[in-house]
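help with this.
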Amino acid sequence: MTIIAAADGSALGNPGPAGWAWYVDDDCWAAGGWPHGTNNMGELTAVLDLLQQTSGVTDELLVYCDSTYAIKSITEWMPGWKRKGWKKRDGKPVSNVEIMKALDAAMQGRTVRFEWVKGHAGHELNEAADRLANAAAVAFQQGKAPAGGPGFAGADRGEHAYEITKPAVEADLFSLIGEEAEASAEEQVIALERSLLTDEIRGDRAAVAALLHPQWSEVGASGRLWTREETLDEIGPLQGEVALDVVSAERVADDLILLVWRAAGDDGSALRSSLWTRTAGGWQQRFHQGTPEV
């Protein structure tokens, strides 16, 4: 027998009020969250709670996720992080490390398959998990306790309460990208631009979407005009590392910063410019352009 579930996370503002949820059917689901967290925290914690609540069964578990970051963290990157003392290849600490360690422990001895599904595309289980995770985030935004759900039959829901309700790392977006929240606006924008070059962010469609303005567009190095939706559908891990060398970060208006930087990678270098605008949810990239250097 195979237990089939979907797991999802949500963060209003990313970071902001956050929720997580997993869903098997209307009689078997769970949700929770925090007053302040990130979408990635929600994605990972949804999987963690599902693993912990089903720890007493021997059935195979199939988990649908719309976050490639969550899937790759568990199935590809985790063994290397463990060998390096929970450090990434650049020597920096792994983001959400306490949740990652708990996931590593919960995966031991389990037969678990993960399958990626496109979010907001009509997948029944994913849509249900997304709705429950969003509801949990909204509840925290309103200062209310979210609906926790019936859970998995026979599970001891109190056994792992600390990991689920009070994660040791209350990360926000700036902890993911190695910057402090009190940084200047220019420093925040530079950090956000750097985050768009990391697999943690690029592997999470919702995290990228939170950084791109609704009217975002890009003129690529080839001259192609990209829309926001086209980019969200195509974005993924980079082929090789790309270094970001800041040329200038200029405040052109109270709520506008023009960032010019040089991208250096395996394919050569290019000059790039990004226009960032401050919205109610924080800084978002409004326009981007890249030009190869000769």
In short: Confidence is low (pLDDT under 50) at residues 165-182. The first helix runs from residue 39 to 53. Residues 179-292 form a domain with the Nuclear Transport Factor 2; Chain: A, fold (CATH 3.10.450.50).
